[in-house]
Design goal:
Length: 222
């Protein structure tokens, strides 16, 4: 961290810390309320997942968080249980200058045969993301921020692409209310970069309101 050389730097530092504290308070409050309100829904989803194929209720995966720190993200499992994923994708071929702008992590035009019946419903309604309220309480995630990517992809980020890692990843974000899973990596990067530069409580509230609209219409869901 650079030294504080004048009053302007001091006020900027205080403002950043105040913004971080207020964002954390809002995150905790929203996460607690979210867990309380959706608890019956989460219990019902867990029961349905267990009844369908007896596998684990939660899908736990390593993701890249703020400043490149790794953490475990929690989601309701939406795909058939497989102890070993033999068809795991390989990334990085030809990515010498960063993740290509044309790259799309999920292809919404292709139906995945491994998605369960319950999985189809919770994916389209984004209910599979509800366990991430606990990620917010743990401090790994925020309610609003860039969606966390897997390390196999972030390892190939260019210097510019790494700017999206300067803030905590979120359950929802600016990119998610502007296309969700259907946008390219280049579009996502531009939107996440915009959020990092202009993040504020007002922008977070706007994104939350737009998230409700997107979820209700299932726009961009896969």
């Amino acid at each position: 961290m650079g030294k504080i050389t004048n009053d302007k730097d001091y006020h900027i530092l205080i403002e950043k810390r105040a913004r971080a504290v207020s964002k954390r308070i809002v995150d905790v409050l929203v996460a607690v309320i979210g867990i309380i309100v959706t608890a019956p829904i989460m219990v019902l989803i867990a029961i349905c997942i267990k009844l369908e194929d007896k596998g684990p209720v939660l899908f736990v995966q390593t993701r890249t968080g703020q400043n490149g720190e790794l953490f475990s993200i929690y989601k309701f499992r939406s795909m058939r249980f497989c102890p070993r994923n033999k068809n795991q994708k390989k990334y990085g071929q030809g990515w010498d200058k960063g993740v290509p702008d044309s790259f799309i992590f999920k292809d919404g035009s292709v139906a995945n045969p491994n998605v369960t019946k319950v999985g189809v419903i919770i994916r389209r309604t984004s209910l599979d993301e509800l366990p991430q309220f606990f990620n917010v309480l743990l401090g790994d995630m925020s309610i609003v921020g860039p969606r966390p990517e897997i390390p196999e992809i972030t390892a190939y980020y260019s210097k510019e692409q790494r700017t999206r890692l300067l803030v905590k990843p979120g359950i929802t974000g600016w990119a998610q209310v502007n296309g969700r899973s259907l946008i390219t990596n280049g579009e996502k990067m531009r939107m996440d970069h915009h959020y990092v530069l202009h993040q504020s409580l007002y922008l977070d509230i706007c994104i939350l309101m737009l998230t409700i609209k997107v979820v209700l219409t299932s726009k961009g869901a896969v």
